[in-house]
């Protein structure tokens, strides 16, 4: 293999403790802030990036989220591991928008990412950077999609991976991780329990822990959602962002992205109101928001079929709460019983077969309209965070099979078209 030492245009300077504000060398493989165990965030030379990353330059670039390389951490080009992530379309689901009475409804189609979910953004960047800094074995606790993405990007980068999932993680995620050659460990517990096992594995082996916000770079990949939203909306941000929130990487990342874009002079100081949506079966952020708390207490008995937002306690809780408060947004718990109904409804209204997490966000919209949190004429960005088929725990009830015999086919017409469905 030809070794290329060609440098990217990354302007990464240091890592900063998200609470301690302590600064650390960014060119060492690091997990959390040694000062307080909280998240480390990447800081860039934004003045340096400003002259190079203009709208014209961006428009001329290809390469999905790597178009933003000045504001990404990878320094040597050959360490970029890509499967084609990012640059997803922003759709206007006309029939669904009409039914909901929200002409300005937009859905960012993140399920077209590699691995069928937006976890690809975070893992593309974090795996690339971890391998650049010397990691050879990566481990992640996951509700499902992060596991599939870690396995796929580790395979692409040529390093080993271990994924730890709750035993009831969606079948598609288990198969995806196995097919990509990961060690797959199913735990009789929740994602937070998987996090403890993943930490144990990383202490006992050479595996580097890639858990949400326990290393600095998945959020860097996720923040490209914010860059793209700005670009998609013609460099003026939407009025509100409605986001199905688990660990909160996407919200935290977009909020960071907007500040970076403003420093580059690409947008002004206006920000969308940021809303975190959770299921009422697991709503620690909503509860903390309503109580005015700085941190969220762990949610006991967490239960929702939307696996990606079944996160009883998030390390980035304070960052999520800070973002939604500063933005003038909020946090909404949707009844668990409405999520599956919205999945079928949105699909029939032509918005595609979306994952349950996205449908939790869609189900929040009528509630938000009613409470006056959003207005019908506003520009709203919702995220199709993963494909519907990735949420399926099992096959549907078997459908009748038609005999391969033309004599039996009139019966098909009678059953499918002449009886009431
Ligand atoms: C992980 C995940 C989420 C939650 O994303 P966070 O940024 O961790 O809050 C939402 N939807 C899907 C499909 C996911 O996989």
Question: Quick one: overall form?
Answer: globular
Amount of beta strand: 5-15%
What is the number of strand segments?
A: 13
Percent of residues in helical segments? 25-40%
Radius of gyration: 22 Å
Hetero groups in this structure are: pyridoxal-5'-phosphate
Structural class: alpha/beta
What would the average pLDDT be, to the nearest integer? Answer: 95
Ends apart, CA distance between termini? 59 Å
Question: Helix count, per DSSP?
Answer: 14
Describe the strand arrangement of the main beta sheet, using strand numbers: 4-5-13-10-11-12
List the helices and strands and how they pair.
Blueprint: E1 12-17, E2 23-25, E3 40-44, H1 46-52, H2 55-60, E4 90-91, H3 94-100, E5 105-109, H4 119-132, E6 137-141, H5 145-157, E7 160-166, H6 171-179, E8 183-187, H7 191-204, E9 208-209, H8 218-232, E10 240-244, H9 249-263, E11 273-279, H10 284-291, H11 317-326, E12 330-334, H12 336-348, H13 356-370, E13 380-384, H14 409-418
Parallel strand pairs: 5-13, 6-7, 6-9, 7-8, 10-11, 10-13, 11-12
Antiparallel strand pairs: 1-2, 1-3, 4-5
Helix pairs in contact: 4-5, 4-8, 5-6, 8-9, 9-11, 12-13
The chain binds pyridoxal-5'-phosphate.
